[in-house]
Design a protein that fits this description.
This protein is mainly beta and 469 residues long. It has one domain: Neuraminidase (6 Propeller). The chain has 3 helices and 30 strands. The strands form 7 sheets. It has a 5-stranded mixed sheet with strand order 1-10-11-12-13, with no helix packed on it. 50% of the residues are buried.
Length: 469
Amino acid sequence: MKRLLNGMGKLVAFLALAVLMVTLSITIKGMRGDTTRITQVFQSPIETPTRPHKPTPMTPPATIHPKPSPPIGTATLPPLLPSRTLTPSTIPTRRATVTPPVSSTPITLPTVQGPLPPGSKVVYGEVDGAKGNTVIWLVSVQNPKLRKMLAAITHRAGYGIQGAVSPNENKIAYLVIPPDVNEKEARTMGGQLWVMNSDGTDARMIADRAGYLAMWTPDSDALVFGRLVALESPKSPEIPFRTELYLARTSGGDLRLLLADETAYGLQPLGWSADGLLFYYARITLSGQWELWGVNSLSGATQILTSFPNDYLIQSATLSPDGTRVLLKTLKERQYGLIVLGVNGQGQRTVLSGATGDQPIHQYAATWSPDAMSLLVHIPPQSGQVAHLEQIDLQTGQRHTVPTTPVSDDEFFIPRSWSPDGEWLVVLEFPRTQSQVYLMRAAGGAMAQIPLAQSSNWVTMLGWIDSRK
């Protein structure tokens, strides 16, 4: 864990790809507590700038994204391109172990029997990377010491899990590296995608070799995940792999191949359109141009929606919860910025710009509000000011500071997740972003640390259960 924390400042969002083995290694390593960067267990927004003279292939982390907000409208889209007949790749099956909660490692912190107190709750994993164990908890935001164990999962030592609560909050999906695979398989073959009920019952595997993505469909009936496959005769030596996106029903059955791309220099899945029909992804061409594409979840037809601004080095793209806008983190002339634009390319707006520096504390980090009307942003320290959190209203442009517990000059809080009801936040404290994770009101104030049985464990956020549950 110490080696992991020492490497947190070196997170690289986009890594150069020379051969497929390196690509897959990096992809799966995102689930591991490695020694050179933050494990992607946290989807940390901290990034190191990529070199502007050459685009680097995007290898999205093994991450499961939070649930989308209900659809609010239908975007106007260009015509679909014809769909193609796709053949899924053949893969071997491996097994992971889901241990009943009663057999998990003893936890010394208080727990409760039966229902938790009323109010919002967080689902998170407590990972013991050294032993290869993760306990999934349901915790009360009113009192984080009151938590209920949902499952104990055994996985390969040194790796963690990813997960997300379904939009209807009835199920939890998670991605795990099996405990009995060797290191080469762990780094090259991806993980297993499992689903269980939100009370921890009926855990079952629905897909293997899920390399870097799992997103719930808006109806909570299926998950989309990605996979990289080696090419025997690549069209370009710079792209020795094919990126595949699959749809896996939680009820089981055959996987459905949605997309196979052999010409993109990089691919980053983003999420769903407002009407729940298109699955969006960012596609990076060999020339370095970022494009927003959509694949029709019914027909498999693809379409290009817009090209992102090409006068910036784009570091990341995040779809809004309502599926209508994209948040871009950019770099231009050594200055970082945050840009918001519609999925149709219209309404481009620079929200913030001017942050400089190679250290995470000197870069912006942001997350969408659940209603997509504002952003919660880490604001780097400026002359006479310390680093702080701000909520920025995207309609009015108004900004206000979100009060937090005071920390030292070299520490700061990173926004991680906003509760669906808009009342609560999960924030990470740098430099120990994996172990020091806090719950707080969205308006600011008192902060309560998410409990860990031992300080060497770390937290992986899976999602929220609202007050009606």
